[in-house]
Design brief:
Helix content is 32%, strand content 21%. It has 2 domains: 180 residues, no CATH class; 119 residues, no CATH class. The chain has an 8-stranded mixed sheet. Strands 5-4-12-11 form a 4-stranded antiparallel sheet, with no helix packed on it. It starts with a strand and ends with a helix. By secondary structure, it is of the alpha+beta class. Bound molecules: iron/sulfur cluster (2 copies). The site of one iron/sulfur cluster has 12 residues, from α9.
Length: 338
Amino acid sequence: MFKCSIDSLDKIFAEISKNATVYLPVDNDDGKAVYTKWENGVKWSNELNTVKSLKDFFFPQVENLMEFKVEGKNIEIKDIRTESEDFVVFGVRACDVRSFDILDRVFLVEPCDSYYANRREHGVIISVACTRPSETCFCNTFGIDATSPNGDITVWKTEDALYWNANTEKGKALLDKLNLDECDDSAVNEQKAKTAEIMKRLPLASLTTENFGGGKTDELFNRPEWKTLSESCLGCGTCTFVCPTCQCYDIKEFNNGNGVIRFRCWDSCMYSDFTKMAHGNNRLSQVERFRQRFMHKLVYYPENNEGIFGCVGCGRCLAKCPISMNIVKVMKTIGGND
Ligand code: SF4
Ligand code: SF4
């Protein structure tokens, strides 16, 4: 384990910036944390987490995939992929780091998504352990330890110091360049124990997944509570866009006068035209769309992915849904737990 003073963080970012672009959570004009490129004078936010997750770095909201040029009967396909630049994201919380276990299982299985894979290869994630978890946090429900996040490097922050530990080869290579002082882990262990005590007292500490998981489709699919739960859902898709694990997208094309550009953009299972096909739509009502989102995270995804749930308990949907509907209410109502 290595140590530095908090005051030396700018010097560290400057060192990393020689070889890679550094992003970190920074307060915007509304006092909300958003990932921002580091440059001299940019200060790390004190907020617990960012409004949007770091999913955007690896799976952007909109990206061009390829171009076509049509001349008479000839179609020329242009591969517009470029090698991503190296980048480092600092200040990532345990829940958001875990979201990559879910996203990787979607994008990196064969046929591998080369756009996503390219950014995963070039991105280094530096996580920071939580010390002030919020009342909307429930990462613990999904077996995530907020006091020991994964990522390429883990950082623990105390009053005046930062403690660094590398978890991967990429992380070790970066940490080796920083020339930090070696230290023992006593301060870190003390801080972990304090945070673990806070985690036990959070309002959602007792929320469990015991009534969900693979094999529960027959039991849960036709539950009458779906109707009441979904009644006030606006179908706005906010919950899916802020979610670090939602990964649905649409592929579209437009003609810019000089050729056709094929691009993809985030989509939402909460939208009425989601997965609409030539014959029509599989889910005609909001109750069906609403149920799909939660059944996918709590039953279908774990069924197909060795029991891993499609939620990391980040609490963003709890904070952002305009009608205060969220996965916790669904788990309590459908799963009958509190
Ligand atoms: S954010 Fe709330 S209202 Fe909007 S789609 Fe999600 S559950 Fe429905
Ligand atoms: S469903 Fe809600 S709490 Fe779970 S990962 Fe997505 S935004 Fe976070």
